[in-house]
Input
Amino acid sequence: MKLKKTEEIIFKALMYISVSFITASLFLIVFSIFYKGLPSMSWEMVSQTPKGGFYFGKEGGILNAIIGSLYLSIGATILAMLFGIPIALFMNVYLRKYNRFVNGIRFFLDLLWGIPSIVYGAFGFTIMVMLGIKTSLLAGIITVSIFILPIMVRALDEVLKTVPVGLFEASLSLGSTRSETAFRVFIRQTIPGLATAILLSFGRAIGDAASVLFTTGYTDHIPTSIMQPTATLPLAIFFQLGSPIEEVRSRAYSSALILTVIILLISVIARVISAKYNKHRIKF
Amino acid sequence: MSVFSRKFRDKTALFWMIISLVILLLMPILLAIGLYLKSLPILNGQSFWELISESDWKPMQGKFGFLPFITSSLWVTFLSVIIAAPVCILTAIYLTQYARKKVLAFMHPVIDILAGLPSVIYGVWGVLIVVPFISKTVAPFFGLQTSGYTILAGAIVLSIMVIPFILNILIEVFRTIPEELTEASLSVGATKWETIKYVLLKKAYPGIISATGLGVARAFGETIAVLMVVGNVVKVPSSIFDSGYPLPALIANNYGEMLSIPKYDSALMLAALILFGIVLLFNFLSRMAIIRSEKNQ
Output
């Protein structure tokens, strides 16, 4: 009997250690990025593009990468929404009766979700070569949108799944068409949840480096058209960190800090929205 | 039928939805075909088995042996999952069986943020903390000397990255186990721990295996973070303190020069295709296993 008790105590201790390990990892990561990034953080970093000699430690900032990343991920998110929202609505409004088929699509989406972004990057690159497009914002937007589409659809689907059948039937019985039910009832019912899902996809888009490595290129200028190459934050971090010069490396840490803050902000906003989510919902 | 009629709008919406879905369903097929066509030139010269079992990588001489990359990938991946899996299982048990609401409310955002951090951030952290830790503390402890850019560093960074991923699935798995089962066990006099050990873990066993499989797939394809800490030396690694060169890093590192050397681009696309195939296979098997075990419940 005593042996059993000790076994439980040992395993409970291991559980505490595991939970603390995970929590500590997060705090260690965030802390070390802040600790290393803050010293070389300046207004110049976020308000200027690289000047001559920037990559030897001279003045300038990474505004090109910040703006480039925003263009890229906003573009990709909008493009993915254009296809993602209809797919998610189709699954939950039109295909309601065909459970097996919908579950099949979900399974398929889960598989797609698992494909590494570097594979999408390589694929995007082959398409570009085939079509004769050079590295550009456009190529990046298309590649990233393909990459985040399954993530977005799956997240939207999880939200739309929660709409009660009664509401669906009530809407149809009042004479609205299925598309009216989809856009006026389902979307209105779940807007905060949908916004959260889209924000999370946006976070994926802005943080991914492997899919843009081949496709967007890198420049010191802020792009003025979608046919121009553009810098992105993850790549700015990656390239600067590879430099042998101390100042450039410490700027990589500040760039990492900027990206981390953006991601943390997205996470906080998503949390605030979904906290309000349950307030204005018709429940059955 | 006027353009503004409800019926017309209904039809247009349906049309767009179907088009979108078809595009989505075709995407992976196009992806596989595209990568396959691109890797044909190299497959025509040598057989697939020859390519992946050869360890000579000299693109300038037209020698493409994938063995160093595949073994590096396997080392990093399995080591990372071996670190991550026990931590995830213990945490999932704690969070679903023991933890109070306050702890859950705290841990949820922690897991979500870990899952949301971009891989390049993990890479920076790896360079800042993990690499020096290995070269200054871990390696000297074993009487070795390394720069710290090793398989072990890659595996540690990777393990933290896959933890939120595996953990979320495991929590889901433990939650789907009916409460009556554990209650029945408790009511016949088993202690909480005995119930966990003999009922919960037994029931969750297929789910645990699947979650681990999904973790393997996720870890296998991770690129930037691993590339930043693993050293990138073309060699079949023989210990965790050797540098490695995983498949995704190979693709990411050489995209610039691949068009200037014949067959090089083809070799890299084959690497992407191998990656795609392995990840898809692991994902498929694990997801199938999860679905099957859910049906049995």
